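Lab notebook, design round three. We kept the backbone fixed and only want residue identities now. Task for the bench partner: fill in a sequence for the structure below.
Input structure tokens:
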């Protein structure tokens, strides 16, 4: 009797420990489920809104010309192209004069009550984006977001998360007899480390060693994952910096590209009241097509790189040399402020370009450029000074043909 009573007490204590562990694990997992679910919902809401804003910003830029000229056909094609890919549910384009150019709706959109409720929660109201041209509002683009992807994401996330939580609860119940004394400490160490990483984004955090073998293996796997994520984050930061630099660089010559050139030109025009005038030079190759036809595109690339290097050698530190595309180059010269200096520079450029360029086969190639320039003037815009320099360049090209 005494032995049976002791066994029953031991059994009762074991059952209580099981119940305590199970209830404790269930509560913790439920809180984690609620936290992850609410976090996922907030994340998907922010992501969908931000995604719609990015789509609207990109689409509004591409619709500027169609809105200005009230080209409803072109505007409808551009909107339908993105809309048919499920980027949004409907779009409406109205000009500043209240002319409706496009009123597009996704005919395949058959939203359920769940999707309608989700759309009202995520977007609240349609997104209006102003379409501007030369700082004037020329129209308004209104987009209704779609929640097909978000609905599937939430549905499957809840299913997977719930299944995972259920599996963890069962495992916790089976291991409660052996791990009830250290399981809370182990979970606290792991979850606190993970929560710290989530909150701070600091992947250098590591989970400490654990006396329980299973949790130690889990900690080692998580630490390995954190190490990989830390390496990946550092690599992404390096790649982003590299891409940001390459976005403003011509890949062939290493000079500034058209985007960097226009940005620098705009900056100089904004600063010209506080600084001396500058000059814009357009340089156009005279026989680049014949070089490509005679020696091939590889030789043409070598000629372009040589021209770029020679122009860069003639520029001062405060000047900019850019390749605009093809055999078109441009220079922004702020280091020379007089007409005589400019004429000397153009002569130096012609002399430098006229020097033979030896391609890989050892063949010397000679070429030349036609130069057009324009001095900056008060009230200049990017378009006006570019137009003057371009006209001057074509005028000089025509004169050189007459002399020939």
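Proposed sequence:
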């Amino acid at each position: 009797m005494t032995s049976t009573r002791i066994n029953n007490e031991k059994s009762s204590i074991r059952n209580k420990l099981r119940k305590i562990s199970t209830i404790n694990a269930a509560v913790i997992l439920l809180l984690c489920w609620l936290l992850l679910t609410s976090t996922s919902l907030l994340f998907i809401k922010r992501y969908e809104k931000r995604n719609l804003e990015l789509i609207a910003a990109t689409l509004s830029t591409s619709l500027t010309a169609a809105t200005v000229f009230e080209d409803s056909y072109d505007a409808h094609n551009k909107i339908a192209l993105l809309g048919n890919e499920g980027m949004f549910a409907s779009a409406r384009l109205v000009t500043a004069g209240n002319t409706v150019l496009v009123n597009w709706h996704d005919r395949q959109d058959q939203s359920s009550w769940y999707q309608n409720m989700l759309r009202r929660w995520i977007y609240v109201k349609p997104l209006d984006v102003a379409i501007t041209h030369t700082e004037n509002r020329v129209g308004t683009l209104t987009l209704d977001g779609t929640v097909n992807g978000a609905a599937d994401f939430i549905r499957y996330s809840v299913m997977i998360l719930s299944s995972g939580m259920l599996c963890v609860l069962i495992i916790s119940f089976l291991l409660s007899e052996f791990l009830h004394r250290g399981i809370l400490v182990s979970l606290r160490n792991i979850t606190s480390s993970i929560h710290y990483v989530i909150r701070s984004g600091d992947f250098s955090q590591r989970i400490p060693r654990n006396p329980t073998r299973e949790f130690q293996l889990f900690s080692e796997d998580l630490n390995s994952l954190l190490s990989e994520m830390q390496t990946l984050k550092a690599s992404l930061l390096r790649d982003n910096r590299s891409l940001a630099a390459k976005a403003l660089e011509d890949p062939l010559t290493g000079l500034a590209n058209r985007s960097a050139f226009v940005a620098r030109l705009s900056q100089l025009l904004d600063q010209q009241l506080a600084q001396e005038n500058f000059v814009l030079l357009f340089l156009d190759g005279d026989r680049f097509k014949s070089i490509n036809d005679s020696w091939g595109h590889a030789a043409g690339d070598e000629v372009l790189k040589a021209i770029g290097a020679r122009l860069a050698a003639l520029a001062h530190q405060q000047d900019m040399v850019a390749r605009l595309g093809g055999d078109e180059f441009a220079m922004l010269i702020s280091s020379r402020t007089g007409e005589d200096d400019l004429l000397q520079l153009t002569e130096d450029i012609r002399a430098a370009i006229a020097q033979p360029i030896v391609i890989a086969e050892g063949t010397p190639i000679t070429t030349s450029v036609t130069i057009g320039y324009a001095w900056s003037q008060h009230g200049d815009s990017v378009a006006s000074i570019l137009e003057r320099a371009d006209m001057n360049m074509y005028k000089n090209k025509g004169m050189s043909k007459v002399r020939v």
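Keep this in mind before ordering anything: The chain has three domains: 1-169, 181-246, 258-403.
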